[in-house]
Design a protein that fits this description.
Layout lengths: L3 H13 L2 E6 L30 H4 L2 H6 L1 H15 L6 H9 L5 E6 L5 H5 L4 E3 L2 E8 L5 E3 L19 E5 L8 H13 L3 E5 L6 H12 L4 E4 L12 E3 L3 H14 L2
Parallel strand pairs: 1-2, 1-7, 2-3, 7-8, 8-9
Antiparallel strand pairs: 4-5, 4-6
Length: 256
């Protein structure tokens, strides 16, 4: 059960905050039934795949260029893991809280699209979205509910070029537009940073927490396990995301 002391303290800081940055990782979607281990979207453990290559190689930009059918095979496995799943109560709580703030930005590493489906409007999908496809040869883009009807690899209906999801594969750069949005949020200033369900191993995920902590601003982490920033945050809640966020919503509503 969640310890209420850090949750109450976080609720108090949230009531005083006007500009909030929330950072989410694979643990955010665990209560939707998605696994939290490695890979794009957190869906593979260590070791080689059934095709004898590491998941980092299978889901790399180079593999998409050289053997797109293999890359698409593992992208398809990720999509099937997401298929039929729904945003959980934690996603919905974040979307419900947002209108009370001057700014409430959600920075997510997840590619499942659950934050968007739950209603989060100020959203930075730093690793992309599995359901947004783009052509590698022309400007055509589209959204798909699932990959079941797609040819693998799918062909662009306009130019017959190969389509791919708008996700960041291993070895690829982060999308410039999303990075610029993140830097703008940080430069404009936030007065509370909340990290949820992420180990914070990537510098661009850990840095907002580190910077806020150094400035003496409120920081919090909701995560059953430890992370790279656990020792820095002011409020550490060792609980699953959906459980803690629902309790946090209750405290905010009660003014506790």
């Amino acid at each position: 059960m969640t310890e209420y002391a850090p949750l109450r303290a976080l609720a108090a800081d949230l009531r005083r905050a006007r500009r909030v940055l929330v950072i989410t990782g694979a643990g955010m979607s665990a209560d939707s039934g998605l696994p939290t281990y490695r890979g794009v979207g957190g869906l593979y453990d260590s070791g080689p795949t059934g095709d004898g290559v590491t998941i980092e190689d299978a889901l790399s930009g180079e593999m998409m260029r050289l053997r797109p059918e293999l890359c698409w095979k593992y992208l398809g496995e990720i999509e099937r893991a997401c298929r039929g799943r729904e945003p959980n109560a934690g996603h919905r709580v974040l979307a419900e809280l947002a209108p009370a703030y001057e700014q409430f930005t959600v920075l997510t590493q997840n590619v499942d699209g659950f934050h968007r489906r739950a209603g989060s409007a100020d959203l930075i999908e730093i690793h992309g979205n599995l359901h947004r496809l783009q052509c590698g040869f022309c400007p055509y883009e589209t959204e798909v509910d699932d990959y079941a009807a797609l040819g693998i690899p799918p062909a662009c209906p306009r130019c017959a070029g190969m389509m791919r999801p708008r996700v960041v594969l291993f070895g690829e750069a982060l999308p410039r537009a999303e990075l610029e949005r993140l830097w703008a949020v940080i430069e404009d200033g936030v007065d509370l940073v909340l990290s949820i369900g992420t180990t914070s191993v990537f510098p661009y995920i850990a840095q907002p927490v580190i910077a806020a902590a150094r400035r003496g601003l409120p920081t919090a982490e909701i995560n059953p396990g430890g992370s790279e920033v656990s020792h820095l945050v002011r409020h550490r809640i060792r609980e699953r995301a959906a459980t803690a966020l629902q309790q946090l919503r209750g405290l905010l509503r009660a003014g506790a």
